[in-house]
Design goal:
elongated; Alpha-Beta Plaits; 11 helices; alpha+beta; 4-stranded antiparallel sheet
Amino acid sequence: MRAQFVLSEIGVGLRRNLTMTFAVIVSVALSLALFGGALLMREQVSTMKDFWYDKVNVSIYLCNKNDAETDEQCSKGAVTAEQREQIKSDLQDMAIVEKVHHESADEAYKHYREQYSDTAIATVITPDQMQESFRVKLKDPEKYKVVATAFAGRDGVQSIQDQRGILENLFNMMRGMNVAALFIMGLMLVIALMLIVNTVRVSAFSRRRETGIMRLVGASSFYIQMPFIMEAAFAGLLGGLVACVMLLVGRYFLIDGGLALSEKMPLVNFIGWDAVIAVLPLVLVIGLLMPSMAAFIALRKYLKV
């Protein structure tokens, strides 16, 4: 096969179907950008879960004298010193527990005032209204139910809270956004494939005379089909490159510049450039292979030899 002939045919095909080729590039770019964005979103959720789950605690709130009057769980009265020490000892004896920290009512009051000093309720809250608690760091955050089962209903324990639950709504929202991005990506992918198939059909029809002559002189199917497949692959590769640029610009705009989320949300562990760069080769490979396969399948019907 002469490379010069194939390249010339690719140029002819792209010029004849410039508008449809541009539409293919745009569709492929959008679908692959959404695909890459969905992968990065999943990586972000995983990174945030690893980061936050490693820091959250299980909180065991103890009864105070106010709870004894209003909470059925604390009907036997406020936690005693003996009950407190027994709870602490039992926690430290558990193999899944890494660290136990006791927060007194005064410490809880101080932390509350630091966090909510601007609210009206902060001016009327008193230390005796705050609950003392044990903040339990687990070796495996997934083992929360072991602690909950062991201490729920025990005398002196008002409630047990897994702080992971506070984060679940955020993670669920991000998972929902990820699913939505994948759905839109699938829709754009179907549109891109339809455009590729139609572009190949139009290109094959416009060059039916040339392909007919090539059949008569004994050219192989592969030789005839190669320019069309290369056209689709070239358009897909351009779309993949555009998608890569969109992902790089999007990451920079959202995290480093523009919105600057890394500065506005310093407690969030955002994905780095290495995660984005790791996705780019996959985007390019899909951008190259997807149109090529679509063109090959379409040509089997329209360029039979």
